[in-house]
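Standup notes, structure subgroup. Blocker cleared on the CU-O-CU linkage input:
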Amino acid sequence: MKNCALLLILTACNPHKVESLVLAQSALQTGEPMRQPAAAVDLDPDPNVLRIELRAQVLPPGHISGFRYAYNGQVPGPTINLVLGQTLEVELINELDNGTTIHWHGLNIPNAMDGVPWERGPVVAGGRFTYRFTVSQAGTFWYHPHFNTEGQVDGGLYGALIVRDPADEAASHDLIALIDDRAEARADVEQAAGPAHGHARLKRRWLVNGHSAARLDLASGSAIRLRMINVSNHGYLKLNSDSARLIGSDQGPFLVALGVNETVLAPGDRAEFEFSLGADNQSLNNLPYTLYGGDALGDPKPLIELVASGNANAPPPLALHAEARQQHADPGYADIIWTFAGSDRSAKWFINGKLFSEVEPETVSLGSVVILEVRNLSPTEHPFHLHGHHFEVLSRNGVAPLHVEIEDTVNVRIRERVRLRLVANNPGDWMSHCHILPHAEDGMMTVLRVLP
Ligand code: C2O
Ligand code: CU
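Run returned:
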């Protein structure tokens, strides 16, 4: 904290000096270049179809970052690169010794392709399943299992799915950063502290694309689009930067970019940042943040550093295509209220007093506008995620957001009441749950039933 305060004072006097000082120190500590996960290989010559194979595999013991599973032998799994309107066909080959599925987080696709075992059961060990759907949303998404989810995602089964809009100006570097946290897998740390204690969970080791460093060596004059996905089971990121611009979130680019003072990225969340690199180095820092109440003690740490070479000027901002979305006023009533409660001590996490799977689905009719209120009465934060739809955040504790906010995952802080508006335009039973995966596993899931 002391260093942080000092840094802030110094920054006010001379930003460049302090920034390069911080960078020089951290570059010595880390120094490893940030890697990009290998992209999925298209097995179909048709330009409108991307056909790939994903093998869910058990890794041999002793994998470098402690991962136990992988898609096609890599963590993160292959990046799926799509263009708006393309069809994706994925053959999942289950080589695990347990069931699995793939869920396409953030995509509004037909219910049968959503990868939840609620009605159909998982793809059994040794089994195969083909997912097939067309993409109509541009943005940064991800995929992960939805069966034994906590263990399988933590074990390394996750990857990025990017849908590009041909109307966007291409960045010089369009990069992906899947952020994971490895403290969660260390049983010794958890047990030493006791499950209800929680402090040990603050000892996080953040991984960017499976590796512990993220240094980007780039030519000055580059325009960088960085797509960040928090795939951690329960680790929160709070990001800040002197130079980055926040250009989008869960559901693609904003109409107007925002400066990055502080952006909380909860598990399941995505954010897109833009850096216009001149001759000076830049960085994206992570501030301590805990689900047990937000800001925590400690200094900001560089998560991703951009090290510039050359003397070219910073390029102008990218021209991105964003939909002009209308901001809706909060009508005051609610069609559905979901109250989140529970505690680490009981390891039971409830929605409206019920544990999944003993839930009564909330039923709405196809095409209806649904006002959904999520109330958090528990002592931890919860990132609420809804399948098959995106929603607009109407208000948080009665206060409307400053700009239109369209999400599929929204963090609900302690004692917060978040009100959401969605159009129920996708028929089926849709999982609605906390994306802190241990909470979901311990009951914090329910179902929104959209009747045709
Ligand atoms: Cu990212 Cu129901 O999940
Ligand atoms: Cu939760």
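Discussed briefly. The longest helix spans residues 15-29.
Next: hand off to the docking folks.
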